[in-house]
Here is the input.
Amino acid sequence: MSDYLAALMVGNNDAYVELVDLGAMAPVNVFTFPDTFIVSIAARTGLLRLYLTDARHDLVLVVDGSSGAVQTSIPLLGPQGCILSPDEKTLYVASGTAGFSKLIVNAIDTTSFAVKSSGVLPLNLLAYQRIAVSPDGTRLAVASMSPAPVVKLLDALSLTVTATITMAPGSSPQHAMFVTNDLLLVWDTNADRLYQIDVPTASQLTGATVQLTSDVSWHNGECTAYSRYANRACIIKSLASPPVNWAVSVVDPFAKTFDTYTGFKGPPTPICLTQAERQALVAVDHRFDSVPGPARLSVLDFDTKAITHDVYTFATTDVFPAWMVTTGRPWDWSHKLRVTALITQILAGIVDDSGGVVIPPGGGPPGGVAPWTGRWRELPAGTRDVLLGLGLHELAGLASPSTQRTEIQRLALSLAAGGLTRLASR
Here is the structure.
Protein backbone atom coordinates (compact mmCIF):
# COMPACT_ATOMS: atom_id res chain seq x y z
CA MET A 1 0.00 0.00 0.00
CA SER A 2 1.37 3.40 -0.96
CA ASP A 3 -1.65 5.55 -0.10
CA TYR A 4 -2.26 8.11 2.57
CA LEU A 5 -5.01 7.63 5.15
CA ALA A 6 -6.95 10.48 6.74
CA ALA A 7 -8.69 9.25 9.90
CA LEU A 8 -11.24 11.34 11.77
CA MET A 9 -11.14 10.86 15.54
CA VAL A 10 -13.87 12.43 17.68
CA GLY A 11 -13.54 13.19 21.40
CA ASN A 12 -15.99 14.65 23.92
CA ASN A 13 -15.31 18.25 22.91
CA ASP A 14 -12.62 18.14 20.26
CA ALA A 15 -11.92 16.37 16.98
CA TYR A 16 -8.66 15.19 15.48
CA VAL A 17 -7.55 14.21 11.99
CA GLU A 18 -4.63 11.80 11.90
CA LEU A 19 -2.76 11.44 8.62
CA VAL A 20 -1.00 8.13 8.06
CA ASP A 21 1.49 6.98 5.42
CA LEU A 22 0.17 3.49 4.70
CA GLY A 23 3.31 2.47 2.85
CA ALA A 24 5.44 2.99 5.94
CA MET A 25 2.56 2.54 8.42
CA ALA A 26 3.80 5.72 10.06
CA PRO A 27 2.04 8.91 11.19
CA VAL A 28 2.43 12.00 9.02
CA ASN A 29 0.61 14.54 11.15
CA VAL A 30 -2.21 15.02 13.65
CA PHE A 31 -4.44 18.09 13.41
CA THR A 32 -6.61 19.22 16.33
CA PHE A 33 -9.96 20.97 15.94
CA PRO A 34 -11.05 22.17 19.40
CA ASP A 35 -14.69 22.69 20.38
CA THR A 36 -16.05 20.93 17.30
CA PHE A 37 -18.19 17.93 16.49
CA ILE A 38 -16.83 16.73 13.16
CA VAL A 39 -19.04 14.11 11.52
CA SER A 40 -17.28 13.24 8.27
CA ILE A 41 -14.18 13.88 6.21
CA ALA A 42 -13.18 13.98 2.54
CA ALA A 43 -9.66 14.48 1.15
CA ARG A 44 -8.14 15.71 -2.09
CA THR A 45 -5.49 13.55 -3.79
CA GLY A 46 -2.18 13.78 -1.97
CA LEU A 47 -3.87 15.25 1.13
CA LEU A 48 -3.58 18.67 -0.47
CA ARG A 49 -6.87 19.67 1.12
CA LEU A 50 -9.29 18.22 3.66
CA TYR A 51 -13.01 18.84 4.01
CA LEU A 52 -14.69 18.42 7.41
CA THR A 53 -18.36 18.73 8.36
CA ASP A 54 -18.72 20.44 11.76
CA ALA A 55 -22.27 19.80 12.98
CA ARG A 56 -21.71 21.79 16.18
CA HIS A 57 -21.12 25.06 14.37
CA ASP A 58 -23.09 24.32 11.17
CA LEU A 59 -20.01 24.65 8.98
CA VAL A 60 -18.07 22.78 6.33
CA LEU A 61 -14.39 23.41 7.04
CA VAL A 62 -11.84 23.61 4.22
CA VAL A 63 -8.48 22.65 5.68
CA ASP A 64 -4.94 22.86 4.32
CA GLY A 65 -3.65 19.30 4.25
CA SER A 66 -0.06 20.21 5.11
CA SER A 67 -0.63 22.57 8.04
CA GLY A 68 -4.11 21.76 9.32
CA ALA A 69 -5.07 25.43 9.06
CA VAL A 70 -8.70 26.20 8.22
CA GLN A 71 -8.63 28.06 4.90
CA THR A 72 -12.31 28.90 4.79
CA SER A 73 -15.69 27.65 5.99
CA ILE A 74 -19.07 27.21 4.31
CA PRO A 75 -22.25 27.59 6.41
CA LEU A 76 -24.69 24.67 6.17
CA LEU A 77 -27.24 23.61 8.78
CA GLY A 78 -26.24 20.39 10.56
CA PRO A 79 -23.84 19.05 7.89
CA GLN A 80 -23.40 15.28 8.00
CA GLY A 81 -21.80 13.03 5.37
CA CYS A 82 -19.63 14.46 2.61
CA ILE A 83 -18.01 12.96 -0.48
CA LEU A 84 -15.99 14.25 -3.43
CA SER A 85 -16.95 13.74 -7.06
CA PRO A 86 -14.61 11.43 -9.03
CA ASP A 87 -12.89 14.45 -10.63
CA GLU A 88 -12.64 16.18 -7.20
CA LYS A 89 -14.22 19.34 -8.60
CA THR A 90 -17.36 19.07 -6.45
CA LEU A 91 -17.92 18.27 -2.79
CA TYR A 92 -21.37 16.87 -1.99
CA VAL A 93 -22.63 17.46 1.55
CA ALA A 94 -25.83 16.33 3.28
CA SER A 95 -27.40 19.01 5.48
CA GLY A 96 -30.88 19.87 6.75
CA THR A 97 -33.59 22.47 7.01
CA ALA A 98 -34.70 23.97 10.34
CA GLY A 99 -35.76 21.13 12.61
CA PHE A 100 -34.05 18.70 10.20
CA SER A 101 -37.45 17.77 8.76
CA LYS A 102 -35.97 17.83 5.26
CA LEU A 103 -32.68 16.67 3.81
CA ILE A 104 -30.66 18.98 1.57
CA VAL A 105 -27.99 17.70 -0.82
CA ASN A 106 -25.48 20.48 -1.52
CA ALA A 107 -22.90 20.70 -4.31
CA ILE A 108 -19.89 22.84 -3.37
CA ASP A 109 -17.37 24.01 -5.96
CA THR A 110 -13.91 22.99 -4.71
CA THR A 111 -12.25 25.96 -6.42
CA SER A 112 -14.49 28.85 -5.38
CA PHE A 113 -15.98 27.06 -2.31
CA ALA A 114 -19.39 28.35 -3.32
CA VAL A 115 -22.55 26.25 -3.02
CA LYS A 116 -23.36 25.98 -6.71
CA SER A 117 -26.60 23.98 -6.33
CA SER A 118 -28.82 22.38 -3.69
CA GLY A 119 -31.58 19.82 -3.79
CA VAL A 120 -34.22 19.59 -1.05
CA LEU A 121 -35.58 16.09 -0.40
CA PRO A 122 -38.70 15.23 1.64
CA LEU A 123 -36.62 13.09 4.00
CA ASN A 124 -35.54 13.61 7.57
CA LEU A 125 -31.84 14.37 7.98
CA LEU A 126 -30.32 11.38 9.76
CA ALA A 127 -27.11 11.29 11.77
CA TYR A 128 -24.14 10.43 9.54
CA GLN A 129 -26.37 10.71 6.45
CA ARG A 130 -24.34 9.47 3.48
CA ILE A 131 -24.39 10.36 -0.20
CA ALA A 132 -23.24 7.88 -2.86
CA VAL A 133 -21.73 9.00 -6.19
CA SER A 134 -21.75 6.87 -9.33
CA PRO A 135 -18.36 5.94 -10.86
CA ASP A 136 -18.89 8.32 -13.79
CA GLY A 137 -19.99 11.13 -11.46
CA THR A 138 -23.34 11.73 -13.14
CA ARG A 139 -25.67 10.31 -10.47
CA LEU A 140 -26.11 10.50 -6.72
CA ALA A 141 -28.03 8.18 -4.42
CA VAL A 142 -29.45 8.75 -0.95
CA ALA A 143 -31.04 6.02 1.18
CA SER A 144 -33.31 6.85 4.10
CA MET A 145 -35.76 5.18 6.46
CA SER A 146 -37.47 8.37 7.63
CA PRO A 147 -40.25 9.25 7.25
CA ALA A 148 -40.55 6.20 4.95
CA PRO A 149 -38.03 3.69 3.60
CA VAL A 150 -36.95 4.99 0.20
CA VAL A 151 -33.94 5.42 -2.05
CA LYS A 152 -33.64 8.64 -4.05
CA LEU A 153 -31.62 8.93 -7.27
CA LEU A 154 -30.46 12.42 -8.22
CA ASP A 155 -28.86 14.08 -11.21
CA ALA A 156 -25.40 15.10 -9.97
CA LEU A 157 -25.41 18.40 -11.87
CA SER A 158 -28.87 19.80 -11.15
CA LEU A 159 -29.47 17.81 -7.91
CA THR A 160 -33.02 17.13 -9.04
CA VAL A 161 -34.59 13.80 -8.12
CA THR A 162 -34.72 11.52 -11.14
CA ALA A 163 -36.31 8.51 -9.42
CA THR A 164 -37.68 7.33 -6.08
CA ILE A 165 -37.57 3.64 -5.17
CA THR A 166 -39.96 2.72 -2.39
CA MET A 167 -38.59 -0.06 -0.22
CA ALA A 168 -40.55 -2.65 1.76
CA PRO A 169 -42.50 -1.32 4.77
CA GLY A 170 -40.50 -1.67 7.97
CA SER A 171 -37.14 -1.82 6.22
CA SER A 172 -34.30 0.52 7.20
CA PRO A 173 -32.26 1.44 4.13
CA GLN A 174 -29.42 3.69 5.23
CA HIS A 175 -26.26 3.08 3.20
CA ALA A 176 -26.13 3.23 -0.62
CA MET A 177 -23.14 2.02 -2.67
CA PHE A 178 -22.73 2.11 -6.45
CA VAL A 179 -21.38 -1.10 -7.96
CA THR A 180 -21.48 0.30 -11.49
CA ASN A 181 -23.27 3.27 -13.01
CA ASP A 182 -26.28 0.97 -13.45
CA LEU A 183 -26.29 -1.06 -10.23
CA LEU A 184 -26.75 0.21 -6.69
CA LEU A 185 -26.48 -1.67 -3.40
CA VAL A 186 -28.41 -0.55 -0.31
CA TRP A 187 -27.66 -1.83 3.18
CA ASP A 188 -30.55 -2.28 5.61
CA THR A 189 -29.03 -1.76 9.06
CA ASN A 190 -32.03 -3.21 10.89
CA ALA A 191 -33.05 -6.25 8.84
CA ASP A 192 -29.43 -7.09 7.91
CA ARG A 193 -30.26 -7.26 4.22
CA LEU A 194 -28.34 -6.03 1.21
CA TYR A 195 -30.74 -4.82 -1.47
CA GLN A 196 -29.90 -4.38 -5.16
CA ILE A 197 -31.37 -1.67 -7.37
CA ASP A 198 -31.28 -1.46 -11.15
CA VAL A 199 -30.54 2.22 -11.75
CA PRO A 200 -31.76 2.64 -15.39
CA THR A 201 -35.22 1.25 -14.54
CA ALA A 202 -35.18 2.59 -10.94
CA SER A 203 -36.46 -0.74 -9.66
CA GLN A 204 -35.46 -3.03 -6.83
CA LEU A 205 -34.19 -6.44 -7.91
CA THR A 206 -36.19 -8.30 -5.30
CA GLY A 207 -34.76 -11.70 -6.16
CA ALA A 208 -31.21 -10.43 -5.67
CA THR A 209 -31.49 -9.46 -2.00
CA VAL A 210 -28.77 -10.96 0.22
CA GLN A 211 -29.81 -11.90 3.77
CA LEU A 212 -26.95 -11.73 6.25
CA THR A 213 -26.58 -13.11 9.77
CA SER A 214 -28.66 -11.24 12.35
CA ASP A 215 -27.01 -8.28 13.99
CA VAL A 216 -27.50 -7.05 17.56
CA SER A 217 -26.41 -3.45 17.03
CA TRP A 218 -27.15 -0.43 14.91
CA HIS A 219 -24.28 0.95 12.85
CA ASN A 220 -24.06 4.50 11.59
CA GLY A 221 -21.23 6.34 9.89
CA GLU A 222 -18.94 4.63 7.44
CA CYS A 223 -19.87 1.01 8.17
CA THR A 224 -20.01 -0.07 4.50
CA ALA A 225 -17.74 0.02 1.45
CA TYR A 226 -17.78 -1.55 -2.01
CA SER A 227 -14.64 -2.75 -3.81
CA ARG A 228 -14.93 -2.80 -7.60
CA TYR A 229 -11.60 -4.61 -7.74
CA ALA A 230 -12.94 -7.55 -5.74
CA ASN A 231 -16.64 -7.07 -6.59
CA ARG A 232 -17.42 -7.33 -2.91
CA ALA A 233 -19.33 -5.24 -0.38
CA CYS A 234 -17.87 -4.91 3.13
CA ILE A 235 -20.22 -4.41 6.06
CA ILE A 236 -19.37 -3.94 9.74
CA LYS A 237 -21.55 -6.08 11.97
CA SER A 238 -21.91 -7.21 15.58
CA LEU A 239 -22.92 -10.84 15.81
CA ALA A 240 -25.00 -12.14 18.71
CA SER A 241 -22.61 -14.91 19.78
CA PRO A 242 -20.40 -15.08 21.80
CA PRO A 243 -21.99 -12.70 23.58
CA VAL A 244 -21.14 -9.91 21.11
CA ASN A 245 -18.71 -10.84 18.37
CA TRP A 246 -17.65 -7.92 16.21
CA ALA A 247 -17.16 -8.80 12.57
CA VAL A 248 -16.88 -7.64 8.98
CA SER A 249 -19.02 -9.44 6.42
CA VAL A 250 -17.72 -9.50 2.84
CA VAL A 251 -20.59 -10.00 0.41
CA ASP A 252 -20.61 -11.21 -3.18
CA PRO A 253 -23.81 -9.54 -4.45
CA PHE A 254 -23.86 -11.60 -7.64
CA ALA A 255 -23.52 -15.04 -6.07
CA LYS A 256 -25.51 -13.82 -3.03
CA THR A 257 -22.94 -15.33 -0.68
CA PHE A 258 -20.81 -13.83 2.07
CA ASP A 259 -17.79 -14.52 4.26
CA THR A 260 -17.49 -13.20 7.80
CA TYR A 261 -14.22 -12.09 9.37
CA THR A 262 -13.88 -11.87 13.15
CA GLY A 263 -11.03 -11.62 15.66
CA PHE A 264 -11.48 -7.92 16.35
CA LYS A 265 -10.38 -7.00 19.87
CA GLY A 266 -12.82 -4.11 20.05
CA PRO A 267 -15.71 -2.58 18.11
CA PRO A 268 -14.74 -1.94 14.47
CA THR A 269 -16.05 1.46 13.50
CA PRO A 270 -15.35 3.13 10.15
CA ILE A 271 -14.25 1.14 7.12
CA CYS A 272 -12.70 2.40 3.89
CA LEU A 273 -10.78 1.07 0.91
CA THR A 274 -7.29 1.66 -0.42
CA GLN A 275 -7.14 3.56 -3.70
CA ALA A 276 -6.65 0.36 -5.71
CA GLU A 277 -9.54 -1.19 -3.70
CA ARG A 278 -7.50 -4.33 -3.09
CA GLN A 279 -7.68 -3.94 0.70
CA ALA A 280 -10.25 -2.74 3.19
CA LEU A 281 -9.08 -0.76 6.22
CA VAL A 282 -10.97 -1.00 9.50
CA ALA A 283 -10.36 1.17 12.57
CA VAL A 284 -10.98 -0.67 15.85
CA ASP A 285 -12.08 1.20 18.97
CA HIS A 286 -10.18 0.24 22.16
CA ARG A 287 -11.64 2.79 24.58
CA PHE A 288 -13.59 0.10 26.41
CA ASP A 289 -10.78 -2.41 26.92
CA SER A 290 -9.92 -3.47 30.47
CA VAL A 291 -6.92 -1.22 29.93
CA PRO A 292 -8.21 1.51 27.55
CA GLY A 293 -5.95 2.34 24.65
CA PRO A 294 -5.91 4.15 21.30
CA ALA A 295 -7.67 2.83 18.25
CA ARG A 296 -5.81 0.39 16.00
CA LEU A 297 -6.03 -0.48 12.32
CA SER A 298 -6.91 -3.84 10.73
CA VAL A 299 -6.35 -4.67 7.05
CA LEU A 300 -8.48 -7.09 5.03
CA ASP A 301 -6.80 -8.25 1.81
CA PHE A 302 -9.20 -9.32 -0.94
CA ASP A 303 -6.58 -11.35 -2.83
CA THR A 304 -5.45 -13.49 0.08
CA LYS A 305 -8.84 -13.36 1.86
CA ALA A 306 -6.98 -12.78 5.10
CA ILE A 307 -7.35 -10.11 7.74
CA THR A 308 -4.41 -8.75 9.74
CA HIS A 309 -5.13 -6.96 12.99
CA ASP A 310 -3.20 -4.21 14.79
CA VAL A 311 -1.04 -3.15 11.84
CA TYR A 312 -1.03 0.46 13.09
CA THR A 313 -1.80 2.17 16.41
CA PHE A 314 -3.31 5.64 16.16
CA ALA A 315 -1.66 8.42 18.13
CA THR A 316 -4.76 10.04 19.59
CA THR A 317 -6.34 8.49 22.69
CA ASP A 318 -9.77 8.52 24.32
CA VAL A 319 -11.44 9.23 20.97
CA PHE A 320 -13.96 7.53 18.72
CA PRO A 321 -12.73 6.70 15.19
CA ALA A 322 -15.62 8.05 13.14
CA TRP A 323 -14.69 8.27 9.45
CA MET A 324 -11.72 7.39 7.22
CA VAL A 325 -10.69 8.07 3.62
CA THR A 326 -7.60 7.27 1.58
CA THR A 327 -5.90 9.29 -1.16
CA GLY A 328 -3.09 8.72 -3.57
CA ARG A 329 0.30 10.33 -3.08
CA PRO A 330 0.97 13.85 -4.31
CA TRP A 331 2.52 14.29 -7.75
CA ASP A 332 6.28 14.02 -8.08
CA TRP A 333 6.42 16.40 -11.02
CA SER A 334 10.14 15.94 -11.70
CA HIS A 335 9.57 12.20 -12.08
CA LYS A 336 6.53 12.76 -14.29
CA LEU A 337 8.47 15.10 -16.56
CA ARG A 338 11.29 12.58 -16.91
CA VAL A 339 8.79 9.84 -17.76
CA THR A 340 7.04 12.15 -20.24
CA ALA A 341 10.34 12.84 -22.00
CA LEU A 342 11.11 9.13 -22.13
CA ILE A 343 7.72 8.24 -23.61
CA THR A 344 8.06 11.07 -26.13
CA GLN A 345 11.21 9.33 -27.33
CA ILE A 346 9.47 5.96 -27.46
CA LEU A 347 6.50 7.31 -29.43
CA ALA A 348 8.79 9.20 -31.79
CA GLY A 349 10.80 6.04 -32.29
CA ILE A 350 7.70 4.19 -33.42
CA VAL A 351 6.98 6.79 -36.08
CA ASP A 352 10.57 7.54 -37.14
CA ASP A 353 13.16 4.78 -36.89
CA SER A 354 15.98 7.28 -36.63
CA GLY A 355 16.59 7.01 -32.93
CA GLY A 356 16.27 4.86 -29.86
CA VAL A 357 15.56 4.96 -26.19
CA VAL A 358 17.98 6.19 -23.56
CA ILE A 359 17.34 5.60 -19.86
CA PRO A 360 20.19 7.28 -17.97
CA PRO A 361 20.80 6.81 -14.22
CA GLY A 362 17.91 8.17 -12.16
CA GLY A 363 15.16 6.58 -14.20
CA GLY A 364 14.69 9.03 -17.05
CA PRO A 365 16.17 11.87 -19.11
CA PRO A 366 16.75 14.78 -16.66
CA GLY A 367 16.21 18.28 -17.95
CA GLY A 368 14.75 17.27 -21.29
CA VAL A 369 15.17 14.68 -24.01
CA ALA A 370 18.47 12.83 -23.87
CA PRO A 371 20.53 12.16 -27.01
CA TRP A 372 19.40 9.26 -29.13
CA THR A 373 21.52 6.13 -29.24
CA GLY A 374 20.68 2.84 -30.86
CA ARG A 375 17.42 2.24 -32.68
CA TRP A 376 13.96 1.56 -31.30
CA ARG A 377 13.19 -1.25 -33.71
CA GLU A 378 16.29 -3.13 -32.69
CA LEU A 379 14.63 -3.79 -29.35
CA PRO A 380 12.64 -7.05 -29.16
CA ALA A 381 8.95 -6.51 -29.83
CA GLY A 382 8.09 -7.72 -26.33
CA THR A 383 10.51 -5.20 -24.79
CA ARG A 384 8.96 -2.39 -26.81
CA ASP A 385 5.47 -3.36 -25.63
CA VAL A 386 6.58 -3.48 -21.99
CA LEU A 387 8.30 -0.06 -22.18
CA LEU A 388 5.41 1.53 -24.03
CA GLY A 389 2.78 0.01 -21.75
CA LEU A 390 4.52 1.08 -18.54
CA GLY A 391 5.14 4.54 -19.91
CA LEU A 392 1.54 5.04 -21.00
CA HIS A 393 0.43 3.82 -17.58
CA GLU A 394 2.46 6.66 -16.02
CA LEU A 395 1.08 9.24 -18.43
CA ALA A 396 -2.48 8.06 -17.77
CA GLY A 397 -2.25 9.94 -14.48
CA LEU A 398 -2.72 13.13 -16.48
CA ALA A 399 -6.13 11.99 -17.70
CA SER A 400 -9.38 13.25 -16.21
CA PRO A 401 -11.98 12.12 -15.23
CA SER A 402 -10.91 9.09 -13.24
CA THR A 403 -12.93 6.70 -15.44
CA GLN A 404 -10.81 7.65 -18.46
CA ARG A 405 -7.63 7.39 -16.40
CA THR A 406 -8.57 3.90 -15.23
CA GLU A 407 -9.37 2.75 -18.77
CA ILE A 408 -6.05 4.03 -20.15
CA GLN A 409 -4.16 2.38 -17.29
CA ARG A 410 -5.97 -0.90 -17.90
CA LEU A 411 -5.09 -0.89 -21.60
CA ALA A 412 -1.48 0.13 -20.86
CA LEU A 413 -1.01 -2.71 -18.38
CA SER A 414 -2.57 -5.12 -20.87
CA LEU A 415 -0.02 -4.00 -23.45
CA ALA A 416 2.86 -4.44 -20.99
CA ALA A 417 1.57 -7.86 -19.91
CA GLY A 418 1.40 -8.94 -23.53
CA GLY A 419 5.01 -7.87 -23.99
CA LEU A 420 6.10 -9.91 -20.98
CA THR A 421 4.26 -12.93 -22.40
CA ARG A 422 6.08 -12.52 -25.73
CA LEU A 423 9.45 -12.27 -23.97
CA ALA A 424 8.72 -15.35 -21.85
CA SER A 425 7.88 -17.42 -24.93
CA ARG A 426 11.12 -16.58 -26.76
